[in-house]
Amino acid sequence: MAAMSISPSRSISCFSSLHHKTLSSHYTLLPTFKRPNITRPQLLPSVSRDIDASASGGLRVFVVSDLHTDYPENMAWVKSLAFSQTNNTHMRKDVLLVAGDVAETYDNFNLTMSLLKQRFEHVFFVPGNHDVWCRREGQQYVDSVDKLNKLLDACKGLGVETKPLAIDGVGIIPLFSWYHESFDREDDITGIRVPSLKMACKDFGACKWPDSLSNEGTSLALYFDAMNDENEDEIEAVQRTCDHIITFSHFLPRHELCPEKRMLFYPHLPKIIGSDYLEARLRSIHETSGSAHACHVFAHTHFCWDATLDGIRYVQAPLAYPRERKRRMNGGEAWLPFCIYSDDKFAGKLSPCYWSDYYAANPRKPHNNELAPWVAKFYNRV
Question: What is an example of a Pfam family matching this protein (predicted)?
Fold first, then answer.
């Protein structure tokens, strides 16, 4: 992993690329802690060893997010996944949850989901922010709501699920969501010039919204959350009939699922990643106290994550951008998709997850304004 020379003012896809800057060259500057003795479970590459179990009826649920298949390398990964097994009859009990940011263009979205349906009997999808960008296809859609509806229609045509469903006693509940700035309630970093949200977040220009909706305020977060009301009957059916329930969204339901601002190359990132309405929604499904049978999968920040908060397990397993996989500490893409459920129980811990492992051993200190060394070197104090 090579060091990068990126200016803090440079904007990128949905949020500043600065927080994705390589950390390997500054590894000795990262917070240190004693890691638990965890080995990565064998996942999809070893799927052929599990053919007999799968054929005999064993349900497995895999998760992945942030496929970004507008990148040829990522599309190639999806194609290799789709054709990794020549006899799909052995895979009839496999389920894949795709937690948004599949592709920016409709054609790449459609191809990606078609390929995934070749590999998995059940594919579920929730939209991410990149999925509703209109910058390349602006003339084809009235706005991002129109594009979203066309993507959901495409899913219906492909047999991709976007509504809650119970499969062999496991409940799968997609949750629509969008972020709002007031989600961030932790102290801001002061004394440095941080690019504004409009400069750093391309959603403000790449998405087109009707007059009643805006990236500013809570209108979008409320609009997407209200879409879940249409599935109340299906959700209640899942709650009545399923022992294990997995909800999933693109955006974050809690700020504890992101590193503290002083650790981020773009300290304003928490303002464009999550929704309080989402957390309230999933808590209403899993119950306030959660349970050992409750799991929520999220996406968007491209940080691998596996943590339990207030009785609910929260997991992120992103493919992310090719340049991130080349530099990241989690070993690239060979372990994806992550198998979250098999043999009638949730799988062991996803590992390694640098930041969630760090916060499992260290408390958050949101009032601490001291920039991490790898961040401080990119900002001049005002």
Answer: Metallophos
Phi-psi region of 191 (alpha: psi -120 to 50; beta: other; left: phi over 0): left
More confident residue, 91 or 180: 180
Element (H, E) at 239: helix 232-241
Burial of 174 (0-12, 13-18, 19+ CB in 10 A): buried
The sign of the torsion formed by the CA atoms of 250, 254, 259, 260 equals positive
- Residue 10 DSSP SS3: coil
Do the beta carbons of residue 210 and residue 132 sit within 8 Å?
Answer: no
d(CA 178, CA 273): 8
148/154 Cα distance (integer angstroms): 10
**Cα 146 → chain centroid:** 23
Residue showing tokens 């909706």: 213
115-170 tens-digit pLDDT: 999 999 999 999 999 999 999 886 899 999 999 999 999 999 999 999 999 999 99
Long-range pairs of 374-378 with CB within 8 A, sequence gap ≥ 24: 374/21, 374/23, 374/26, 374/29, 374/30, 374/265, 375/262, 375/263, 375/264, 375/265, 375/267, 378/8, 378/18, 378/21, 378/265
The share of the chain scoring above pLDDT 70, in percent, equals: 81
The interaxial angle of helices 106-119 and 72-82, nearest 10 deg, is 20
Q: How far apart are the C-alpha atoms of 184 and 202, rounded to whole Å?
A: 19
Task: Please say whether the beta carbons of 374 and 23 come within 8 A.
Answer: yes
**Mean pLDDT estimate for the chain:** 85
Residue 251: is its pLDDT beyond 70? yes
DSSP 281: H
Question: From CA 245, how far away is CA 266, in angstroms rounded?
Answer: 34
Average confidence (pLDDT) over 328-357 = 86
- Greater pLDDT, 53 or 84: 84
CA angle 6, 11, 17 (to 5 degrees): 60
